[in-house]
Structure formats: C-alpha cells, structure tokens
UniProtKB/TrEMBL annotation:
Region annotation (Disordered) ranges: 475-494
Coiled coil (residue ranges): 575-602
Gene Ontology cellular-component annotations: plasma membrane
Biased composition (Basic and acidic residues): 475-490
Positions of the AsmA domain: 2-250, 253-510
Keywords in alphabetical order: Coiled coil
Protein name per the record: AsmA family protein
GO biological process: regulation of protein targeting to membrane
A Pfam family annotated for this UniProt entry: AsmA
Length: 607
C-alpha cells in the first residue's frame, strides 16, 4: 500500500511540475509571432491572433484562443477571409499514455468565412496551398498512417454561429450560408452518438432553412460509418419556387463503407409539398465516375397544383417575343454519370393529363440516356415507351418507340389539349428518331412512321349525314333552313398510317367505316403551323334512313367530296357541292346512257 501511495504521489508531483513548467517557462503566446510568420511565408496572408492563448490542465490539457483572423489576398473586399471569435480544444491527459484520445470539448463559436470571386477570376483560395504544401503533407501522412489508436472518446463537439459569405463580384451576387448550430453528443467508437444541426441560406432568388437530428456510429477499425434515424426538415422560399414556398421532409438511414468507398441510403420517407416517396440509393465512389443505383416508390404526383395557372397564363401573355435564338441544352453532365434508376409512381397529373401505375427503368452511362422501359395506365388503356438520348455530341440525337393500346381517345384529347374532335377506343404506335432538342428544331428534324386505329367512335364537330341531306336538298332546289342536329358522325372504325418529315405529318390512307358511310382520304397536318389540309371522299352505303333520310336516297353510291381545313384547335369542315353536283350528273348521265343502250338493244332485237 505504501508503494502505491508513493507512486501516486510521484505521478501527481510530475503533473504539477509539468504544469508549473508550462505555465512559467512555456508561454504559448511566445510562439504567436512564429505562427504568424509561418502563415505569411506559406500563403502570403496575414494571420492575426488578437487574444492571448491560454492553457488548460489536469484532468484535461487544452488551449483556448480567440480573436483569430486570416486575410484575403491583397485588394480583396472584405479584407478578412476567416474570422473566429472563440475556439476551445481540450484533451484528457492520462488516456494519451494508453494511446487513447479522450476529447473533453471541441467548440467553435462566431466564425465568419468570406469567399470572394473577383471579375478577373481570382478567388480567396488563391495562394493558400504554398510550394511546400505537398512536401509538408507527405511526412504528416506517413506519421498518421503509422499511428495506432486504441480508442477515441469525445465529450462533445459544438459549432455555433458560423457564417459563410460567397461573394461573386462579376455577377454582383452574395450568397450567405449560416450554420446556426452543429452538435455532436458524447461519442465513442462502436457506440451511437446523437447529432443535430440547424442551417440557413440566403441566395439571390430564394432562402433555405433546414434542421435535422439523428445518431451516428463509427467502427473501431474506422471502416464503417452508420447514421440512423436522421430526419431533416427543410423550407425553401422564393419567387421561382412553386407557390413561392416548398416544405420538404426526409427520414433516412445511411451506411458508409469507408474502406470500400461505398455508400447505401435507405429512405424511409420523403415528402415534398403533397408528394411522398420512399426508396433506396447505393453509391460506389471508388471508381472514376461514381456508380449510382436507385430504386424509388412514389405516390400521387399532381404537378398542376405546383404551378399557379393564373399567374403562369398572365406571364405568358405579357412575355415579349424572344429576340435571342434558342440554343441546344448542355447535356455534357451526362458524361459524368453512371446511374441506374427504377421508379414506380402511383399516378401523375400534368397539364391536366392523368396517368396511373408508372413503371420506369432508366440508365445513364457514357453520355447516353436509355429509357429501357416506361409502362403506364392511360385513360383505360396502356402506354409503353422505350427511348434513347445520345448526348455524346454537342447536338443530341434521340430515338423512340411508343405504343398506346385500348385508350379512350376523347377524354385524353380533352384533358391534354382541350380538343373535342374524336371519340372511341384508340390504338397507336409510332417509331421515330431525330437530332436537336430545341423545340422548333425538334419538330423539323423528327423522322417518324406510325399507324393508328380507332374503333366504335365518333368524329365531333361535323355531322356528315346532315351535310349530305342538306346538299341533297339544295340540289333539288330546297333552300329551307337546315335542321339543327348534334354535330357528330358515328363510325365503327377509323384507321390510317402516317409519316412525319420536316414538321409535316402525312396521312395517305385514312379510312372510316360506319353503317351508313364509307370514307377514304388523305391529307397533311403541319406541326409547326398546326394547319390541316385533308381531302376526303364519302359515299353512302345505302340510304340515310334513320338519319333523317328516305328509304332510297338519290345520293346512294355517289362519291361525295369533303374537305377539312383550319387548325388543330379549330378544324373546319366543308362539302364540295360543285364536285358533288358533277359526280351526281355523271351518275345520272351514266344511268341515261344505260337506259338508252337498253332501249336500242330492245329495238334492235325487234328486227
């Protein structure tokens, strides 16, 4: 027992002697000029330590400093790049002898960082890495790699009132990022420690505020970092934000394999405005281009609610015509991506168009975006799309294959374009390719071929039987007012093929069948001007009985010409009465010829 007492007394005496020595003979302020001079030689910057440095001793050894500032390069405004109000670092003394680090406290308060980019391109970072930086880093790296620690314990880390000002003199913009607080609770290897932060940012067009909390754990061999129960709530406000305000919330867990440079994120819940989602993300950042795999499940998406219609329409009406030519979108960033994404969405509504049960597979690699599959339910039918965008050249190229089956075409056209033109069950397929993503060039350069058929439908805006009756009556000299009937022509099938070149869709074989009519024709639809130019030929199958006609119409079997002009929004239908009269006269002439022929044959047979 006496030996132990004497040993403890000896240890305490040694600590006291070290404390006295450091206090009396080793004043840290004596090194301030050397530190300032070293920084000046290394970076060319002025380091100022205004407050006196002070020691803390047993049971912890540490240092307190304040009033620290590091200047920006000469001529910059503000003059200071870094200002620190107060910093404290305290380490437990005794565990150091056991190769253990116990940090009692690490705190930083009132730090301000001014990062300036000038008009000539120079910035606050210029000159910070001196000529000897690489040489000095090598031995430090070797020392750290050889050092072995048995344990690390941190009583707590606190960073408060830290502000970063990013100043761009060329754009005359200042962005302010404020870390109001960051705290790490009591931390030890292989144990979870609580973390929390509060952050805000002010930018020219928006403000952001965010706060979060969770817990993290670091493995003893420093190869695994785990973050659990991290919940982050963010509010973004600004004129460019949908409805000027967007609130988001995310709950996730993350695992990082530091040795393999791999990261996995499990997102339990993600919400933004009225949109909710969940999913997983995996990242391998050991490769030159990080590999990203993501799988998300998303609920209902109503994009229309995020865009104020009245303000958007007003802005569109008041917007002046663009005077500068459109330029190709810069898709060079796709070359730096290696992404695979699987996405399911319960429903999407955009521009009043509703779709359900989306299933999408997308890949991006080497500057090529592959939409290998996109399936969705569309107005009681199915949508199936595959597509590719090649951004390896300055002007992107693309190709696609699209199929629509069993879709109710009338509500689709009404919702998508407010056009009441067709009804029926539609099937549609088209394959195409082109270059350029500028809207006008996209229409001009697109080459496509397709086919469509619509069954058990109706053509709205025109009543062909009524037009024929009216024309028939006028041919007979009846100029009485037309009876008002619904402007609709029913049909059993409407089919055709089409090609698209230089912005013009050409349909050479339009055919429509109904119990009363047969319609055939051809024409064009200009996607650039939205102009329609169709010439159709209609013929009565037998009679218009049941459609207001007699048992045997005089026009039965006669080809009746019909023209469709105008635009997509306002199609115009007209009956070519002159051609109709010529056709009828020809029919009557042919009948007269037949009668005359029969009469002559009878007379000749009488001899």
């Amino acid at each position: 027992m006496k030996f132990i007492k004497w040993l403890l007394a000896l240890v305490v005496t040694l600590i006291l002697l070290v404390t006295v020595y450091l206090t009396v003979f080793f004043d840290p302020n004596d090194f301030k000029p050397e530190i300032v001079d070293a920084v000046k030689k290394q970076t060319g910057r002025e380091l100022v330590i205004a407050d006196d440095l002070s020691w803390t001793f047993f049971p912890v050894i540490g240092i307190n400093l304040g009033g620290v500032s590091l200047s920006n390069p000469e001529g910059f405004t503000p003059k200071a790049m870094l200002e620190v109000n107060k910093a404290v670092a305290e380490v437990a003394l005794m565990p150091l002898f056991r190769q253990q680090i116990e940090i009692a406290e690490l705190s930083l308060d009132g730090a301000t960082i001014n990062l300036v980019t000038r008009k000539n391109g120079t910035s606050s970072f210029d000159g910070l890495s001196g000529d000897n930086s690489k040489k000095a880093a090598t031995p430090a790296a070797e020392t750290s790699s050889n050092a072995k620690l048995n344990d690390i314990n941190i009583g707590g880390i606190s960073i408060t009132n830290t502000q970063i000002n990013m100043i761009d003199e060329a754009k005359k913009q200042t962005q302010v990022f404020t870390l109001k607080s960051f705290t790490l609770g009591e931390f030890a290897l292989e144990q979870f420690a609580p973390i929390a932060f509060e952050f805000s940012a002010t930018m020219p067009d928006m403000t952001v505020s965010s706060e979060g909390k969770g817990e993290l754990k670091l493995s003893r061999d420093f190869t695994q970092l785990v973050v659990n129960g991290l919940k982050i709530d963010t509010v973004v406000e600004g004129e460019s934000i949908p409805n000027k305000k967007l609130e988001t919330s995310i709950s996730l867990a993350t695992q990082i394999a530091l040795d393999k440079q791999q990261l996995s994120v499990d997102i339990a819940q993600l919400s933004a405005a009225s949109i909710t989602a969940a999913g997983k993300v995996g990242v391998n950042y050991a490769t030159k281009i990080p590999q990203i795999n993501a799988d998300f499940q998303v609920g209902d998406i109503d994009l229309d609610t995020l865009l104020p219609k009245t303000e958007t329409a007003a802005a569109t009406e008041q917007a002046p015509a663009a005077s500068t030519p459109a330029v190709e979108p810069d898709l060079s960033a796709l070359k730096q991506l290696d992404v695979k994404l699987k996405l399911t969405v319960k429903s999407i509504k955009v521009a009043n168009l509703s779709t359900q049960n989306w299933l999408m597979d997308v890949g991006i690699k080497n500057g090529v975006l592959d939409l290998t599959k996109l399936n969705a339910d569309l107005y009681q039918g199915k949508l199936l799309v595959s597509a590719q965008v090649d951004a390896r050249q300055a002007v992107a190229s693309y190709q696609f294959d699209k199929k629509v089956t069993g879709v109710q075409i009338r509500p689709l056209l009404k919702d998508a374009a407010d056009v009441d033109l067709l009804a029926g069950t539609a099937n549609f397929d088209v394959k195409g390719k082109g270059r350029s993503l500028i809207p006008e060039q996209l229409k001009k350069n697109l080459l496509a071929n397709g086919h469509f058929d619509i069954n058990d439908g109706a053509l709205y805006g025109v009543n062909i039987p009524q037009m024929i009756r009216s024309a028939q009556a006028k041919l007979k000299g009846d100029l009485s007012p037309e009876t008002k009937e619904e402007r609709k022509t029913d049909f059993s099938s409407l089919t055709g093929s089409f090609s698209l070149d230089n912005g013009v869709a050409t349909n050479p074989d339009l055919a429509m069948s109904s119990p009363l009519l047969r319609l055939a024709g051809k024409g064009t639809a200009n996607l650039l001007t939205e102009a329609l130019d169709y010439r159709l030929t209609t013929s009565l199958v037998n009679s218009l009985k049941g459609q207001g006609g007699s048992d045997k119409d005089a026009l039965a079997g006669i080809d009746i010409p019909l023209a469709i002009t105008g635009t997509f929004q306002k199609p115009e239908y007209a009956l070519d009465t002159k051609a109709l009269l010529n056709n009828q006269l020809k029919e009557e002439t042919d009948k007269a010829k037949e009668k005359l022929k029969d009469s002559l044959l009878k007379k000749l047979g009488g001899f």
